[in-house]
Amino acid sequence: MAKVMVGKASDMGAGSITHVTAGGQEVLVANIGGKYYAAGNTCTHAGAELHDGTLEGKILTCPWHGAKWDLTTGQMTWFPQKLRPIGSYRVTVEDGTVYVEV
Ligand code: FES
Q1: In total, how many domains does the chain have?
Q2: Residue 25's Cα: distance from chain center in Å?
Q3: Total Cβ atoms within 10 A of residue 24
Q4: CATH classification at residue 71
Q5: Is the CB of 50 under 6 A from ligand 1?
Q6: Interval 38-91: pLDDT, tens
């Protein structure tokens, strides 16, 4: 388990999405209502980078074909076919800095 710095919490306001490469994984970090959540950044349908998607509440819509992902769980909430979860990761905030554990 590696703990990787994402950035300053003050630069990641509510509704913002950022992404980092951590432990060889592409990880997306979103601020949803003042709380940070991390999930895989690669859509398991055809590989779109999810940080380019649209965030509404906790639901992120894939920019390519519209799959909907719950960023609090890493689970798909809508798509015509079943997709593998994108995964979710633990996020911590220490002294104003956001970290993700992968
Ligand atoms: S790549 Fe995300 S829905 Fe197709």
Answers
A1: 1
A2: 12
A3: 7
A4: 2.102.10.10
A5: no
A6: 999 999 999 999 999 999 999 999 999 999 999 999 999 999 999 999 999 999
